[in-house]
Amino acid sequence: MNLIVITIGISLILGLISLVAFRKLKRVQWILFFINALFQVYVAIRLFINRGTVETLPLPFTVLDIGGLELVFKTTELGLIFFVASIVMTVLFAIFSLSYNDKKHASGISPLWMLLMAGNAGIFFSADWLSFLISWELMGWTAYFIISHGKEKSAKAGMYYFTLSLIGTATLIAAIFIGFRGTGSLLIADSLTYFKSLLRTNHSLVMTAVILLTVTFFTKSAVFPFYMWPSKAHAEAPDDFSAFLSGVMIKYGVFGMIAFILPLFTMSYPGPTIGNLPLFLQKILGAKSIPIYLMVIGWIGAFTAVWGSLLAIRENDMKKMMAHSTVSNIGFIFAALSINTKFGIAAALFHTFNHMLFKSGIFLTLASVKHRTGEREMHKLGGLAYRMPLTFFVFLLSIIAAAGIPPMNGFASKWLIFQAMFDRNLLLLAIPAFFASTAAFMYLYRGLHTIFLGQLSPRFYKVKEAPILQLVPMVIIILLVFVVGLFPGLILQPINKVLASLNIATIGGDMSSIVGRTTTINSTHIGLIFIGAFALVMVLYIIGKKRKLIKDPLDRYTSGETPKDWGMKPEQYHYGMHFYEPFENITKKLLNGFSMDKFFMGFALEFKRLSSAIQRWFNSPQLGLMILVVLMVAILVIGRVL
Amino acid sequence: MNAVLGVLLHSFMAMGMGLLYMGISRKLTARVHRRYGPPFWQSYIDVIKCFSRKSVSYHFIMDLGSMMGLAGLLAAAMFLPVFKYLPFENTSPIVVILYLMPIGYLGMAMGVSASGNPLTAIGIGRALTLMLGYEVPFVILVLAMIAKFDSTSLMVLASKQAGGIANWNMVTMPIGFIAMLIALQGMLAKKPFDTMIAPAEIASGPMVELSGKFLGMAFLQYAVAVFVETGLVVILFLGGANSIVEFFLKQLAVYLLATAVSEIFARYRVEQAIKFLWIWAGGLAFVQLLINMYTG
Questions:
Q1: Buried-exposed string A464-479: b where 16+ CB fall within 10 A, e elsewhere
Q2: Spatial separation of the C-alpha atoms in residues A110 and A107, rounded to whole Å
Q3: Do A453 and B110 touch (CB under 8 A)?
Q4: CA distance B196 to B203
Q5: Secondary structure of residue A548 in the 3-state scheme
Q6: Three-class SS string for A177-205?
């Protein structure tokens, strides 16, 4: 039974059917989407049991003079773990969307999302470039339409994303052709072996292909210099899809890097390494066998991490802030995977899945907040914890995980990333990583305070807790975050299997402990210690004299003044705008002065000018015709001469 | 059972010793001001008094946050080896302590934010900004330790400095030690880095709405923070200790030094504080890291 082909086919067919037949019945579309997600879970389980499935789908036509063209799908350990994680998240999002898309918020994106799920499966299981390219494109353009979802502002953001996506696809095709020219085969494995064999003889050709592929994955994962699209696309996309964008879609680049690029840079890599640099640089930059190329990727990742957090700190739009935070985390992941040891890859994968969990938790809570209040700017919110306590707790636990604080899951993976860096003596690289990690406290606390704590505006006195169907996936996510935090082995052991399949040594440890380079930690103990300390403090709290609960929001210490006397309202008493003004003042010059966004926009402006100039030629028909004729003659002459 | 007893003992020791250091330093401050000053057990009296007075809470999140605050720091203290005592079998990893302490600060921040007073949020905002200031040099120093000793276990780091004052990191890494002292001033929120409290400006910042047992817990939290942070300095730079009393004395010396320094400085603004910490503490720590990497 061709399970992979069937699941891709079903997603495509269901998507098209619901696009055509149920245009008016949004509810039915979402139910179909949920059913499709459930079916993919079934497929995931079946594939998990029968490891190493290979499926082929012969195509009835010829391309590039290759006869017997076929699409090949294969389950690898790496693809499988990514697929399972993405599907689990999708089911949760599907439950959330069922409730989110009520009459007021219905967006009609589910058919496209179903098509996207076909692309999702295709990307993780493709064994040949053709199906990989098709899936990649399917994912790219469905995401574009979903982000746009019929709104002008969103369409702009979608266009920004799509342009970058096109750059990525162009470089992907170029890289595919380099491999195809050498091997005459479209199988990914053939190309990789070909590149590996060429490393010694034709190093520059391989590096060209590698750089082209890297650009593809950088654009998709929003690594510097393409870090600006999440803040636009994640913010403007439908709220339930933002969680998918940030949780799952941005990880395709991570998958690509590990599957296609890292295998080329093993211990026997003959190209330039840190060992070829001057002695002083060798001493401070890291272990000698690290390829220069990976070192550069690592530093780009670390830079992205720092830059993302600096941008997040000064952002007032809550979805944009969390999008910047995603960029920062992606930077972390790329810094880790560039290390390319067992610690590095394990840490990158571990953080990928942890980030999937906690960032989905954060985005779902934000979606609920927007569902109930309709606001996205943080200074207009405030005090929602008093009305939406469960949502608040999900958000709280998610940001604790995002900050990398034990006993939540973010800690173990951040710790492993640092261990990977210590292992290869990449101590300088650890400085920006720690910086980004500490800066994360700042923007996460800002989200906590400005959205959920502080003063509740009278506008929101009647806000209710999120609907039950939205709470269910959130609570499941948060339980997963907590359980993985206490037992990191739950995810690390499958990752160990991936490492074994990639011929890399595995990470030591069991369900609760991880053996690192410089120490061993036991997450369960850390969690228990915290719980124990909490119990002790609770006893102290109960011993103390009973507290009095005051409900009046304006009855606060104001140095002797009474806010009500001068007509102060609660929302004016909420500290939210320019939260970190002193810090913003420090970073303002830097962030305003150096912006890739501006660079791209300048580029776009020049392009617009050029195209409008060309357009003007054709306003007077004679000029345009003349230019065309001259051009044609010139081309013919040049062609003749050559 | 042993572990539970150990944890309890360790917690009370951390709180008790922290309060003692605070009491003694109050006496020192008073003498610098030419006052007589309160007795050194005043801190204990304060805490007991706080817990026995009426208090006001604005929401149960405030109660929860206050508890989380103290619990996080106590949990961090469990991984700090006092002389050679640990409450339970662990490798005393410094990165865990680094990441457990923020849960205390986050809890505290959450609790006071729930009170709805904008002054608290301003104070916390400043505190977190400052945290970015002092964490960077401190982390660079930890990296310098890794470059030299290839370990993040506090036990191992202490044992590597055994055998007399000449082996202490204070002597072998003097540049790093100066950076550590500057960063410590920020960690303890002492002048010139006490903008988050700034009594005359934002009315004690985070503490403005705390009363009764909430204030008591904030006191205890600060006491544990003092215990952990001075303990870290003792282990990282003052060669650990050969007995438990020596450990306490060294902690007290470090804390009194910080207090004395704090009395002769005025307060920096937030951006000034961050720039000072990054440029001076961070710069010195970075030099130490480069030296350690080059020689190590």
A1: ebbbeebbebbebbbe
A2: 8
A3: yes
A4: 10
A5: strand
A6: HHHHHHHCCCEHHHHHHHHHHHCCCCHHH
pLDDT in tens, A545-567: 788 877 776 667 766 677 777 77
Does the beta-carbon distance from A453 to B113 stay under 8 Å? yes
Least-confidence region, from A44-48, B90-94, B280-284: B90-94
Nearest residue, CB atoms, B271 vs list A538, A541, A586: A586
A83 alpha carbon, distance to own chain's centre: 15
C-alpha Rg value of chain A to the nearest Å: 26
Tell me the average pLDDT of chain B: 87
How many residue contacts between A and B have a Cβ separation below 8 Å? 237
Q: Residue A433 and residue A424: Cα distance in Å, rounded?
A: 15
Are B100 and B72 spatial neighbours (Cβ–Cβ below 8 Å)?
A: yes
Highest mean pLDDT among A196-205, A402-411, A621-630, B250-259: B250-259
Q: Is the predicted pLDDT of residue B84 greater than 80, yes or no?
A: no
Give kind and range of the element (H or E) at residue A72. strand A70-74
Q: A520-522 and A513-515 as β-strands: parallel, antiparallel, unpaired?
A: antiparallel
Strands A70-74, A513-515: parallel, antiparallel or unpaired by DSSP?
unpaired
Structure tokens, A444 = 């996460």
User: What pTM was estimated for this model as a whole?
Assistant: 0.92
| Alpha helical stretches, state H, A77-151 | 77-100, 110-125, 129-148
What is the average pLDDT value for chain A, to the nearest integer?
Answer: 86
CA distance A171 to A602: 22
| Listed residue (B140, B265, B284) closest to B195, CA to CA | B265
Chain B nearest-CA residue for A284? B293
Rounded CA gap, A497 and A507, in Å?
10
- Backbone phi, then psi, for A18, in 5-degree steps? -70, -25
Q: In terms of C-beta distances under 8 Å and separation of at least 24 residues, what long-range contacts does A391-394 make, across chains too? A: A391/A365, A391/A465, A391/A466, A391/A471, A391/A474, A392/A365, A392/A452, A392/B61, A393/A478, A394/A361, A394/A364, A394/A365, A394/A471, A394/A474, A394/A475, A394/A477, A394/A478
> pLDDT at position A169, please?
92
Residues of B in Cβ contact (< 8 Å) with A545? 51-55, 212-213
Region of residue A528 (phi > 0: left; psi between -120 and 50: alpha; otherwise: beta): alpha
The model's pLDDT over A169-179, given as tens digits with 9 standing for 90+, comes to 999 999 998 88
What phi and psi values does residue A579 have, to the nearest 5 degrees?
-60, -45
pLDDT exceeds cutoff 80 at A267: no
Which tens digits make up the pLDDT trace of B130-168?
888 898 999 999 999 888 888 888 888 888 888 778 888
